[in-house]
Amino acid sequence: MDVLLIAESRPPADVLEGLLRGLDSAGATGVEVLVGGSWVLAAHRVNPINQAQVRAALEPGTNGTTGGRIVEPTTSFLTSADFTSTPTQVAIGQAVFGGRRIPVVAGPCAVETRDTMASIAAAVAGAGATGLRGGAFKPQTLVYNFQGLGRSGLEVLAEVGREAGLFTVTEVMSPEVAGDIERYVDALQVGSRNMQNFDLLKRVGRSSRPVILKRGYFATVEEFLRAGEYVVTHGNPNVILCERGIRTFESQASKFILDLNAIAFLKRRTHLPVVADPSHGSGRRELVTALARAAVAAGADGLMIEVHPEPDASWTGDRAQTIDVQEFGRLVEQVDAVARAVGREVLVR
Amino acid sequence: MDVLLIAESRPPADVLEGLLRGLDSAGATGVEVLVGGSWVLAAHRVNPINQAQVRAALEPGTNGTTGGRIVEPTTSFLTSADFTSTPTQVAIGQAVFGGRRIPVVAGPCAVETRDTMASIAAAVAGAGATGLRGGAFKPQTLVYNFQGLGRSGLEVLAEVGREAGLFTVTEVMSPEVAGDIERYVDALQVGSRNMQNFDLLKRVGRSSRPVILKRGYFATVEEFLRAGEYVVTHGNPNVILCERGIRTFESQASKFILDLNAIAFLKRRTHLPVVADPSHGSGRRELVTALARAAVAAGADGLMIEVHPEPDASWTGDRAQTIDVQEFGRLVEQVDAVARAVGREVLVR
Amino acid sequence: MDVLLIAESRPPADVLEGLLRGLDSAGATGVEVLVGGSWVLAAHRVNPINQAQVRAALEPGTNGTTGGRIVEPTTSFLTSADFTSTPTQVAIGQAVFGGRRIPVVAGPCAVETRDTMASIAAAVAGAGATGLRGGAFKPQTLVYNFQGLGRSGLEVLAEVGREAGLFTVTEVMSPEVAGDIERYVDALQVGSRNMQNFDLLKRVGRSSRPVILKRGYFATVEEFLRAGEYVVTHGNPNVILCERGIRTFESQASKFILDLNAIAFLKRRTHLPVVADPSHGSGRRELVTALARAAVAAGADGLMIEVHPEPDASWTGDRAQTIDVQEFGRLVEQVDAVARAVGREVLVR
Amino acid sequence: MDVLLIAESRPPADVLEGLLRGLDSAGATGVEVLVGGSWVLAAHRVNPINQAQVRAALEPGTNGTTGGRIVEPTTSFLTSADFTSTPTQVAIGQAVFGGRRIPVVAGPCAVETRDTMASIAAAVAGAGATGLRGGAFKPQTLVYNFQGLGRSGLEVLAEVGREAGLFTVTEVMSPEVAGDIERYVDALQVGSRNMQNFDLLKRVGRSSRPVILKRGYFATVEEFLRAGEYVVTHGNPNVILCERGIRTFESQASKFILDLNAIAFLKRRTHLPVVADPSHGSGRRELVTALARAAVAAGADGLMIEVHPEPDASWTGDRAQTIDVQEFGRLVEQVDAVARAVGREVLVR
To answer: Is C220 within 8 Å of D253 when comparing Cβ atoms?
Structure first.
């Protein structure tokens, strides 16, 4: 029996002590304090017979606590709209995800030269983007393909973002490089292929940087939320969920299918902000603008768009889904119009 | 070798005669005149060596024809945007699909009593719908479930639609009942499960009624177009394609995934109008309005929505995806706002 | 409320009369006698309040009946292993499906010339096949592709099968041609794309010919059984279920995935025989023999294999999945060895 | 342009030096020596114009090398059957994967108490297993579920395996713990969810332990091979590919579908051994034995089976797919019979 102990405030040391003793005599293993604010403690394999002891230790007023409760979790909990009905707003730099304004993050698949990056940053900032994306460490299915510039890419991204007044975000592929990435950029992205890399989720859960968590292209919405729960329970409440397309039987008309059902569903099921990536979500540049409009109409709180001055000359294999800066300008204009039709806005006018 | 012979106008009888002889001596089997307007003739298993003979018979001026060409089709042809760049507009009653205005078809899953139908028709017409839907012959995966009122349902649908000033559409499940359905309603719907029922496609291809062709929940976009090609080649150019959700690994958060990538793609790949059914496309009523907005933002030329005064009391199993008339009113208002943001409109203001 | 009335024997006319009156006053619509042997009667939309009346009419001894019961079906019923634990054996010609022996049906995708067919029939009969397959009416996704020889193909198939001592089976695509097909061949095949063509299922349910029902490549196992239920409830108990591959995200390594989980599951869930088609189930000839072995190891009661003397010269698009007669010989030998390892056999030795 | 330089033997230092200079002046980035035996060097973004320089440095005899060639890889290379037609045999302990004998690895989902593990090990060894599996670090979609005993689990696994004469294998979830795991067990398993955790693949590629690489339940066969390529190019040729079921639209009849098409395909496409896990590949214990037979009939080189004395009392959520020791005995007997029918064997008789 897995249990979760919840109290409104962290109990004093002696109460905590008592609880841990209670759990121990209830046969619990793997007892772990998950979050310290809205205080939550998880324990595995608690002997149901001895739960009474644990329950007693959580009684309101016992040992001076405010009281608490025991939950046997079978699904996401802290990320659920049942936990709090107040939408969580996540700030990255000056931008806020989850409010009336809809931030747009733009940039190339991979960080390239300083000049290219500076030109992209200036162009997308001018068109209305608030964030800059670009991979320094690139997941590639084929080992022989370009895997990013690494640390030097981080430097370029950070510098160029600062100059253009854009916040920066880049993918973190493994715990080892998380520290470096935190030093350089404003937000960490967990990529689709790592959505169930649980050690990575725990690591970004211990970060002070906001996390953009991409949905596994293979993951149900329930599994997506459970991945978010890993991050939140490890101490980081600033999670933005990003729908980026799922894998289906269709792969010719578009490489993935952007799941807007999931966006509409998630807006009711969780208090976290939900954004869309129509670039990966289609794999085809000629569909990106239409899907960006659709995502915002469905309720998305933000957009991530791959942009490059010369998409067909970009360094990585995502060329087919990358739009140029002119198209990005049109996209922002059109998305802004749709946003206003649903009571929101992209641009400050 | 399968070949297609195309001429701008139907050749005179003697030229046609010559062509058929030519095909015969080229070893062709299954020679068939497919459409009579933009004249197309298909032949199977033509001996490549003897094609010259066929080709000669199509020479411009030969025997007084305007000339023609031979195509070896490997994909859809008449439904392709390569065939004509002019968008096809399909009229059903007063409504036009494929123009600036976005018609909305609403109604219950199955035709129920005359009173219920009249109340639905009045309500949805008042809210801005232009068409009325309702099944008289219902496909049911389980043989024991209610399979529709049959002919008496057609009568009710036709009568109620006429009174409310709405065009009517209903599903035709097999060639046998197509004649009856044509007599009662304004447009024929081919359901998702019948998208590859080729004899049915041929039958509606010989109808004078417009056809709303639903995408198989299992079909690629290419296969969807090929199904449309069956209808068009059999003489009926008035085909409206309807995206209604595909089956993926996700079935909890929503029963199907509405494939808006397909809508954006089809708007570029075909000249036919493309509409969306967010009711079947999600299976969840709380997602319908958001997905209706998204579909129009993605470029949909129309919407089909399941509406019932008391969804949970409706006669068939689609209760979970049926919205009530109040929600339908909100849906139309919100969709109209999004439509205007993309230069179109649902309501006449 | 949909209900099903079941009695061990068909009640006398006056009891039936009483039941129908009872159903009528219970508000039932669509009352239908489904099968006459193990007698079953279905009624839709029965008013729950008045069910007592119906129930009373079914009391054992009431009006001289043997008694019966009312079921509210939410899933397959007559095809379920819960209905009878005795495996159903279906005979086609001399072959029996569902017993110790494992029949193999072989032949080309489409019926071609009489000579080709005779050569195939002789070859596969010599190698151990007991049935001959070949399409006279071919479903084709592209309207321009060869759609079969039609009736003349049926004649060839019947004649050639008779000469070679093989039973014959061919696909029936629509109710209109079912009568013709019944006259010529020994068993009717419902193709994958028609698994949810409910009017066709009802028609073959009224046939005296056994039915090989192919699983929709898009259908869950539950839906597959429900399709079988349509056939059985319309009077035809001789249904053979055929797993032929499902559509997944994978389409390069093989076109479909042969779902052997389904075979193992169905052998426990239904009393009907279950066969496998590894030709369509892979779309690749080099995988067919290995998958045929695997299907029999998983419990398949028969095999359907596409064979042609010159696969690359066959008339339809299934060339890639068709094996030649030499490979068919190897396949039968290897499958027989595996069959014997699981206590069954293909060949009589 | 990504290129791969291949020579039969590692060139002398001065030639290597020359090559690296050549690549540098060709504009290459990310130059990396991948494997040292069959020597391979990868370089990214090589300027095509300057490739001649690189090519020259590889000329046979140039600078005393044996010659080499340049490949522009677009797919897997070292793992391909085109690279070597000799099947790779991978030894773990006394067992060899890829030969005539078919090793069976058995054990619980997670390592539990020493007593439970000892009882399982004795039972499966007695029934014919050659390897013992059990997770000490468990991936769990829900953070609140039991995540394994960690290092103490490794100790138990190692000790118990040694006593029972079984080799041991356990899952490595992240590079951090790889060192510990290498010390305790004979082989490393990369789990399905980590198949595209590229940093983990590189880490196990630098290990001296054989690797059992599970296919991502979401991954195409091509992507699966590419994951194997990551391991091999980082220096570890001892890779065993494990098919463990893919995610499809079906999730009721079985949780995943064991893809035996992939096994038949991989046996032709790669020289690496391929094993099957019918426990995860179905998620249902009543299907495991039938699918194990089928996997071996399809060509599998080994099996991984979840076994527990009391499946319903096991510590993790995989209860439904775990068989008991009696069933495991039957499974081995039946699989051995099928193995012998295809010219192989499980048991030594």
So the answer is: yes
Residue C30 Rama label (left phi>0; alpha psi -120 to 50; beta) = left
* B45 shares contact with chain C (CB less than 8 Å): yes
Q: What is the pLDDT of residue C56?
A: 67
Non-local (6+) Cβ contacts of B52 within 8 A are none
Cα radius of gyration rounded to whole Å, chain D: 22
Nearest CA in chain C to A247: C249
- Domain match, A45 and A104 both: no
Same-domain pairing of D116 and D227 = yes
**Which chain C residues are within 8 Å of B229, Cβ to Cβ?**
142-143
The verdict on D16 and D164 lying in the same domain is: no
Q: What residues of chain C, 286 to 305, have a C-beta less than 8 Å from chain B?
A: none
Residues A65 and A123 occupy one common structural domain: no
Q: Is the sign of the CA dihedral C298, C303, C307, C312 positive or negative?
A: negative
Residue B247 near chain D (CB below 8 Å):
yes
- Alpha-carbon torsion (A261, A223, A282, D223), positive or negative: negative
> How many angstroms away from the CA of A126 is the closest CA of chain D?
30
Q: What is the mean pLDDT of chain B?
A: 90
CATH of the domain at A228: 3.20.20.70
ipTM associated with this complex? 0.93
CA distance D88 to D83: 11
User: What would the pLDDT profile of D234-283 be if each residue is shown by its tens digit?
Assistant: 889 999 999 999 999 999 999 999 999 999 999 999 999 999 999 999 99
Enumerate residue ranges in chain B where pLDDT < 70.
Answer: 1-2, 6-11, 26, 29-30, 35-68
Q: Compute φ and ψ for B174, nearest 5 degrees.
A: -155, 155
Domain assignment present for A131:
yes
Classify burial at B102, counting beta carbons within 10 Å of its beta carbon; exposed 0-12, middle 13-18, buried 19 or more.
buried
Q: Are residues A169 and A310 in the same domain?
A: yes
Looking at the complex, does the CB of residue B250 fall below 8 Å from at least one CB of chain D?
Answer: no
| Cα distance between residue C115 and residue C96, in whole Å | 28
Query: CB-CB: which of C264, C284, C287 is closest to D291?
Result: C264
Structural domain count of chain B: 2
- What is the mean predicted confidence (pLDDT) over D94-112? 97
Closest CA to D129 of D148, D113, D108: D108
Q: Which whole number is the average pLDDT over D167-188?
A: 96
In a domain, A81, yes or no: no
Residues of chain B with Cβ-Cβ distance to C142 below 8 Å are 73-76, 226, 229
Could you tell me if residue A78 is inside a domain?
A: no
Q: Do D77 and A34 touch (CB under 8 A)?
A: no
- Reported as a single tens digit per residue, the pLDDT across C154-165 is 999 999 999 999
Distance from CA of D280 to the nearest CA of A (A): 16
Which residues of B fall within a CB distance of 8 Å from A250? 220-221, 246, 259, 261-262
Give the separation between CA A117 and CA C270, rounded to whole angstroms.
62
Per-residue model confidence (pLDDT) at position C146: 81
CATH number at residue C46: 3.30.70
Q: What is the span of the domain harbouring residue D35?
A: 3-71
B104-117: b or e for each residue (b if 16 or more CB lie within 10 Å)? Answer: bbbbbbbbbeeebb
Distance CA D108, CA D131 (A): 12
In this structure, the answer to whether residues D22 and D170 fall within a common structural domain is no
Among chain D residues, the shortest Cα distance to A142 is held by: D226
Least Cα distance to A106 among A92, A121, A93, A116 occurs for A121
* D273 in the same domain as D333: yes
Beta bridge partners of C242: C214, C275
Domain match, C61 and C182 both: no
Determine the residue among A244, A247, A261 to mutate to test chain B binding: the one whose Cβ has the most chain B Cβ atoms within 10 Å: A261
User: What pLDDT score does A320 carry?
Assistant: 94
In three-state secondary structure terms, D208 is: coil
